[in-house]
Amino acid sequence: MSCAQTIADYGLRAIGIGERTLPRSDFDLCQQFALIGSGMIWNIYFGVLALAVGFVLATALALAKASGNPWLRRPAEAFIFVFRGSPLFIQFFLAYSALVLLPKAGLTILGVTIPTGWLTRAWAGALIVLILNTAAYSAEIFHGGLRNVPKGDLEAAEAYGLTGWRRFRRIVWPTMLRLSWPAYTNEAIFLFHATTLVFFSGFPAIRQMGDSLYYASYFADKTFNPFVAYPIVAGYFILLTLGLIALFGVINRRLNRHLPGAAHRLKYRPKLIR
Fold first, then answer.
1. Rounded CA gap, 150 and 152, in Å?
2. What is the helix (H) or strand (E) element at residue 94, kind and residue range?
3. How many Cβ atoms sit within 10 Å of the Cβ of residue 216?
4. CATH number of 203's domain
5. What's a BP term from Gene Ontology annotated to this protein (predicted)?
6. Plot region of 69 (φ>0 → left; ψ -120 to 50 → alpha; else → beta)
7. What pTM did the predictor assign?
8. pLDDT < 50 positions in the chain
9. Is 111 left (phi over 0), alpha (psi -120 to 50) or beta?
10. How far, in Å, are 71, 210, 226, 259 from residue 66 at the CA level?
């Protein structure tokens, strides 16, 4: 079987497209690259959705923590403290243990039955944990950005008659993002790396369709050689990290486009004549 055919058979296996059975013998590098790469689809799924939903939740938590209303501030502080203070690995197990206690037939509320079985699957239950975890860390980052918004910017906004939502949308929020973005970039990278912990959590892989670490573990167990499959996983994540750095760098330049020299790259200009 050629490598192109192997990629066609196993490249999307992690989402149920292609060969249903895993290879049993005669493992080659192409099979390992193809299957582990297909598992990366799930890692990207967890990371992208958790980052998107967590960003919105983190912004709300940061505003609540900065609020003078204790009914908003204290719950936000408690949420951030709990999820930042406990290991993510423990959060996965506690969430799964709590979700399996839900009735299999679903919850009946006002005569409407809401199914709950899907919450015990990794694509939903583990995603919820990742969302809550990254929201807590990102909220602390954004809160630091909120506290460091220059007072001069706020006074200038008031001088121009910008108050309330208009001031937040046009002055406070962009400045908060600009100040927080380098640290938030690191959080995004850590989040994608943390998606590998889903493999070790209580959330099962359905029909052998797991993430990248699931397939790497399969090959390592079958070949008794962890020095091929696991470095392939590391290589995929290094490429993913480089992509994240490039994407967040573009957004960072967009956020700082109004600053002097922010839109210009350094140019090499040798001094030919002193």
1. 5
2. helix 88-99
3. 26
4. 1.10.3720.10
5. amino acid transport
6. beta
7. 0.91
8. 264, 266, 268, 271-272, 274
9. left
10. 12, 40, 48, 27
